[in-house]
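Tip: read the tokens left to right.
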């Protein structure tokens, strides 16, 4: 896993605080690709860490940027509604 960029953090914050219907209406191919290939990977690892108790690397990294457990759960739920495979 590469280092989490500020762009990734912004994507996660947007997912955590936005309505999936609105996001889907404005999503283009580049955004979909970014979500599928990078942000989705981060959220998938975060999900595995928190459901399988397989470590805390991503969780601690996201906490440094102010992403709480509630933000993480909301971002995962929104990503799933957008069709991003998390689990």
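Filled-in amino acids:
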């Amino acid at each position: 896993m590469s280092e989490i960029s500020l762009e990734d953090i912004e994507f996660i914050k947007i997912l955590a605080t936005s309505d999936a219907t609105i996001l889907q209406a404005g999503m283009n191919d580049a955004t979909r690709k970014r979500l599928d290939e990078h942000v989705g990977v981060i959220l998938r690892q975060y999900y595995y860490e928190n459901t399988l108790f397989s470590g805390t690397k991503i969780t601690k990294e996201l906490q440094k940027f102010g992403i709480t457990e509630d933000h993480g759960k909301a971002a995962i739920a929104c990503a799933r509604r957008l069709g991003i495979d998390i689990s």
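The chain has five helices and no strands. The chain has one domain: 9-81.
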